Amino acid sequence: xxxxxxxIISLIVVSVLVFFGLAHRVLDRMRISDRTALGILVAMxxxxxxxxxxxxxxxxxxxxxxxxxIPIGLAIYVLTRxxxxxxxxxxxxxxxxxxxxxxxxxxVLMKGNPGGAFDVLDPIWVYPIVGGLVAYIAGRSRRxxxxxxxxxxxxxxxxNWIYLLGTGTPGRVMIGGAGAFDSIVLAGIxxxxxxxxxxxxxxxLQGGPASRGRPKKLLQSLxxxxxxxxxxxxxxxxADINPEEQEA
Length: 248
Description:
Layout: H1 6-19, H2 24-29, H3 34-47, E1 51-53, E2 59-64, H4 65-80, H5 85-112, H6 123-139, H7 142-167, E3 171-175, H8 179-206, H9 216-219, H10 225-228, H11 231-235, H12 243-246
Parallel strand pairs: 2-3
Antiparallel strand pairs: 1-2
Helix pairs in contact: 1-3, 1-8, 3-4, 4-7, 5-6, 5-7, 6-7, 6-8, 7-8
């Protein structure tokens, strides 16, 4: 019996949450509407079955629509709504750092250290867990963490492709496809969950997000109205949401 891809299952679960409005708060903070999110999720599911060949030289390569092209398009879409150059730069750097860390673990630690700590878990779990954690630490905001996680894991396939081309080694690379699709989807989910859980915890401990010096229009999509008039919230400094994120 063929195993149903974990990435597809995860997307279906997330689609159900979005459909019933349970993910509205997270999507709102990322400036994505429920309808747009559902459209993207459906497109990723359908696109996961479509591979576009881009073979060069002795390397037989292809890019998956659902796990490659759509995540890139989604990252560009989310970043264009960020409206802050600083966040663009931080997000792209975070994606690069995430890709390098995951690539190092997969190509060096897991292959060069048999029986090591990373051998306990399947790569399909190691990549998204490590990728999501690194992306959150480097990206800081929900939006940056999500983009860095998905693009970071996607970059691992790109690095492998570049390596094969550079060394002239024949091989096959499926950018965003096969097991990489599962890892990309799970990495994005892990990053968003970390950002939401940690951010929500900090917000509650501080009595709400900082409102001093922030336009009310920018705070409406991040907080309840009661926070805007709260002296406690005005004096607090929220650690997990940056000015760039609040401006989105």
